[in-house]
Write a structure and sequence with these properties.
Its cofactor is pyruvate. The structure is a single chain. The chain has 2 helices and 9 strands. The protein is mainly beta. It has a 9-stranded mixed β-sheet with strand order 2-6-3-5-4-7-1-8-9. A hairpin with a 5-residue loop joins strand 8 and strand 9. It starts with a strand and ends with a strand.
């Protein structure tokens, strides 16, 4: 049996922009993607702490410090909202016990304040 587990989490990032007319996705600063081991075009879930909205999209490499929701997702957030960005991965039962997700903490300007790496 395979289990879907949390792979990585960027905790309490601040939305820096919302671009309704972009094709889609969430643009995330390259330093955040690297620290959380999230690849460009990888599926992500974004949870808005301020309004409770949850959405799935894919990650794009943005500018340093950027967290910009694009396309239809831009209607679900506001600049300044705090969000949690999550990725999941499927693991074999034998891999679950040794798995620990990567959890990145950031400040109000999306600078990393804690990274387990």
């Amino acid at each position: 049996m395979r289990r879907r587990m949390l792979k990585a989490k960027i905790h309490r990032a601040t939305v820096t922009d919302a671009n309704l007319h972009y094709v889609g996705s969430v643009s995330i600063g390259p330093e955040l993607l690297a620290a959380a081991d999230i690849l460009e075009n990888e599926q992500v879930m974004v949870v808005d702490i301020d309004n409770g909205a949850r959405l799935e999209t894919y990650a794009l490499v943005g500018k340093p410090g950027e967290v910009c929701l694009n396309g239809a997702a831009a209607r679900l957030v506001h600049v300044g909202d705090k969000v949690i960005i999550l990725t999941y991965a499927d693991f074999e039962e034998s891999e679950v016990k040794g798995h620990s997700p990567v959890v990145i903490h950031v400040d109000a300007t999306n600078k990393i304040t804690y990274s387990p790496r």
